[in-house]
Amino acid sequence: METNQLLALTEQFGNPIYVYDATKIQSQYHKLEQAFKNVNSLRINYAVKALSNLSVLKLLKQLGSGLDTVSIQEVQLGLMAGYSPEKIIYTPNGVSMEEIEEVAALGVQINIDNLSILEQFGTKHPKTPVCIRINPHVMAGGNSNISVGHIDSKFGISIHQMPHLLRIVSNTGMRINGIHMHTGSDILDIEVFLYAAEILFNTAIQFKNLEFIDFGSGFKVPYKADDIETDIEELGKKLTKRFNNFCTEYGSELTLCFEPGKFLVSQSGYFLAKVNVVKQTTSTVFAGVDSGFNHLIRPMLYNSYHHIQNISNPNGKERFYSVVGYICETDTFAGNRRITEITEGDILCFYNAGAYCFSMASNYNSRTRPAEVLWYENQGYLIRESETFDDIVRKQIVMDFDVLNAAV
Ligand SMILES: Cc1ncc(COP(=O)(O)O)c(C=O)c1O
Asked: Quick one: which residues bind substrate (predicted)?
């Protein structure tokens, strides 16, 4: 999107604000589809956790996407957006048996990642087909908080537990119709991905009734100019060849599934916040914005990089700034960052704000969460109003101590 379009949206809808460019979501979806065009049956299940706004889910539905969900609430959002239950996979971690049963009763594909629940579920519901999340013990992912396939990870059933897993399947008579892995986010090296895929193929061959193999996600997108990204075309070529050979060996045409979050929505998003104060200290110049990690937690949570541009003064002289938020703790979006000269009142644009930004936002410091806008066919549509103080207090029940004390 053009910076003048973004500025105009802040004038129309206020700030801070998240803006998502539908065209980018569409082009990323088509790019992935195109990379795997030689797979007979491909299914892309968008990872709802990345950005769960109903209008975004509906946009992805139009493209033919399914959904990857991790909570019953995400399943409900998917159904509300018009997805049929068969287009939804549910991959929870550490949730109760009751929630899993509730989701299964809706007709959604269940993906189980531990032996205890697998045994309980298989015993009670042997006829419900189940996918199994395998932990291939491959160290993939951009940093330790988003690497989930390694030996110490809480996710998935270890490949070393295969004998136990197979015993549960045979004892309960349950049907395993899918095998899944998700090794982590921000994977740079496709060879690591392909290595983990090999482990998954070796596991898959041991099950006779598979309908699909789900390779999860973790594709890295660029965060700045010249940044490395997952080579999706190369992965498409290599994995397609291997997958098609596997289907021949397996003796049936399986569906290849992915569940990307970041790949589909990260680059579509812009977060726009106004500079409240420019503060020169003895060591640095701070630009303090009308926001904080309550709205964009990724830099504080994973040290993630968001390119920041002063869209009110895009051609100004560059200076170095620390861009900080208003939360009363360390709240740094970027340190020592070269940005065109900032004046109080300017609008800063944070790039790659589509994935894990609004969906991780909170009301910390009793702040409201901003509005969301979808830029669709050259027009901005408000897809979530900004919260008000009423939203902060809505669920609170205020005790009346005067009445209580008088009753004693
Ligand atoms: C099981 C599962 N699938 C898919 C994703 C999406 O990953 P990404 O946003 O890196 O594509 C995640 C992210 O945490 C996940 O846990």
From this structure: 298, 302, 329, 356
Where along the chain do the CATH 3.20.20.10 domains lie?
Answer: 22-262
Beta bridge partners of 255: 212
Q: Which of 66, 77, 68 is nearest to 29 (CA)?
A: 66
Say how many C-beta atoms besides its own lie within 10 A of residue 47's C-beta. 28
| Contact indicator for 230, 264 with CB cutoff of 8 Å | no
CATH class for the region spanning 266-393 = mainly beta
- Binding-site residues for substrate sit at 298, 302, 329, 356
Give ranges for CATH 2.40.37.10 in the chain. 266-393
SS3 of residue 309 by DSSP: strand
User: Is the shortest distance between the CB of 259 and ligand 1 below 6 Å?
Assistant: yes
CA 6 to chain centre: 23
Tell me how far apart the alpha carbons of residues 171 and 166 are, in angstroms, rounded to a whole number.
8
Residue 3, CA atoms < 13 Å, CB-side half-sphere = 14
Task: Give 136-192 pLDDT, tens digit per residue.
Answer: 888 655 555 555 556 667 888 999 999 999 999 999 999 999 999 988 767 778 888
CB atoms within 10 A of CB 304: 20
Nearest alpha-carbon partner for 169 in 214, 132, 216, 211: 132
DSSP 8-state class, residue 106: T
Dist CA 252 CA 262 (whole Å): 31
Helix (H) or strand (E) holding 254: none
Specify whether the CB–CB gap between 161 and 92 falls below 8 A. Answer: no
| CATH class for the region spanning 22-262 | alpha beta
Q: Residues 330-368: pLDDT tens digits?
A: 999 999 999 999 999 999 999 999 999 999 999 999 999
With CA atoms as reference, report the closest residue to 236 among 197, 185, 180, 184: 197
Mutating to test ligand 1, I would choose from 182, 232, 263 the residue with most ligand atoms within 8 A of its C-beta, which is: 182
**Coil, helix or strand for 390?**
helix
CB of 217 within 6 A of ligand 1: the answer is yes
Structure tokens at 96: 């109760």
